[in-house]
Amino acid sequence: MTTILLVDDHPIVREGYRRLLERQPDYRIVAEAANATEAYQAYRKVSPDIVIMDLSLPGASGVEAVRHIRQWDKSARILIFTMHSGAAFALKAFEAGASGYVTKSSDAAELLRAVAIVARGGRALSDDVAREIAAERLGEGRALVDELGPRETEILRLVASGRTTEDIASILNLSPKTVQNYHYQIKSKIGARTDAHLVWLAIGAGLVGDASAT
Predict the structure, then answer these.
(1) Entry's InterPro entries (predicted)?
(2) Are strands 50-53 and 2-7 parallel, antiparallel or unpaired?
(3) pTM
(4) Which domains does the chain have, with CATH numbers?
(5) What is the C-alpha to C-alpha distance for residues 25 and 45, in angstroms, rounded to an integer?
(6) Are 123 and 117 in contact (CB under 8 A)?
(7) What is the DSSP letter of 143?
(8) Which end of the chain, C or N, has fewer beta carbons within 10 A?
(9) How far apart are CA 64 and CA 73, in angstroms?
(10) What are the pLDDT digits (tens) for 53-87?
(11) Which residues pair with 103 in a beta bridge?
């Protein structure tokens, strides 16, 4: 029996995944979580074989949750299941320690295939994300976030989302001074002249949505 922790901030969505997965004879959902903190706590409590995690969570993102869980358990098997198909998100998830990445636009069979691969210790990637990564790597230059580590990428996302230094420090359990140091390092690494320029670059990298376009 493969035990699974589901992480998504929408209870109805989690219920749908639960029904799909538990129709399979060898899968059992042993815990659920709605945010990164709950995910880490649940993982430590139940030690599931696999975590299926969304990226868009309240507060810290799924990438931060992956990083935190993998710090505690280097063998953790985590499959990202998200609406984000951008290469930047997928690459940072893998860099943080994810074992697979499937988009929610994929059909149910692709999710089940990915779960099976990750359960065997392999790496899984949905076709649409594989195409995005290939297109980026074949294109000119390096992506903006290639210059940043997972923690720096998470802080950039939070800054660009309008979070204050104090908010970010609370979400990531860091001191405000440490957040300020990261903020300065990020601007230096990616060549942002001002915070407004930093936000513009983050939008261009697909880390946050462009509010003016909605």
Answers:
(1) CheY-like_superfamily, NreC/VraR/RcsB-like_REC, Sig_transdc_resp-reg_C-effctor, Sig_transdc_resp-reg_receiver, Tscrpt_reg_LuxR_C, WalR-like, WH-like_DNA-bd_sf
(2) parallel
(3) 0.71
(4) 2-137 (3.40.50.2300), 144-213 (1.10.10.10)
(5) 24
(6) yes
(7) -
(8) C
(9) 14
(10) 999 898 888 999 999 999 999 999 999 999 888 77
(11) 82
Tokens 């997928």 belong to residue? 90
Residue carrying structure tokens 């069979």? 109
Q: How far apart are CA 49 and CA 58, in angstroms?
A: 24
The answer to whether 3 and 30 have CB atoms below 8 angstroms apart is yes
The candidate with the shortest Cα–Cα distance to 80, out of 99, 107, 96, 61, is 99
Cα dihedral across residues 62, 68, 71, 73: positive or negative:
negative
| Helices 87-96 + 127-138 axis angle, to 10 | 100
- Supply 71's token pair: 């710090």
Give the integer Cα–Cα distance in Å for 37 and 43: 10
Q: Tokens for 41? A: 């706590």
Cα 126 from Cα 146, distance rounded (Å): 21
